[in-house]
Amino acid sequence: xxxxxxxxxxxxxxxxxxxxxxxxxxxxxxxxxxxxxxxxxxxxxxxxxxxxxxxxxxxxxxxxxxxxxxxxxxxxxxxxxxxxxxxxxxxxxxxxxxxxxxxxxxxxxxxxxxxxxxxxxxxxxxxxxxxxxxxxxxxxxxxxxxxxxxxxxxxxxxxxxxxx
Length: 164
Fold this sequence. Notes:
Blueprint: E1 2-9, H1 14-27, E2 31-36, E3 40-42, E4 53-62, H2 66-79, E5 95-101, E6 106-107, E7 112-113, H3 122-132, E8 136-137, E9 141-142, H4 143-147, E10 156-157
Antiparallel strand pairs: 1-4, 1-5, 2-4, 3-4, 3-10, 6-7, 8-9
């Protein structure tokens, strides 16, 4: 099943954190990283009193079910030192979000698919549009049309030079 993951960090060398997360994803059994967007410098969303983030989106192919994939992402976050705090939308050493799982809509106490706020967030839609502009987000519409409805003016694509 094709899945889409949001990646973000704004602490302790965020660019290095994203590359480390991608490396860890590539090592997981049952997950193949097929594509990763460019990296984007983005203003914080929600809680504005923090550093800018670096965000990206990864497209993966997986044999895992959605909950198992979510747990794998949370395990990577934990191994990378993420500690969940009560500060909602606060600084993150690493943040891995399961955005989409095929065209499935899924709702439980643990997971909502598609990610419930992704269509409001330019930091998700900009890199997702780079990879799949015509992708349909179940219940919401096409990525490029959704992106046109949000403010993406503060998002800066980082140079591809030297990112590898």
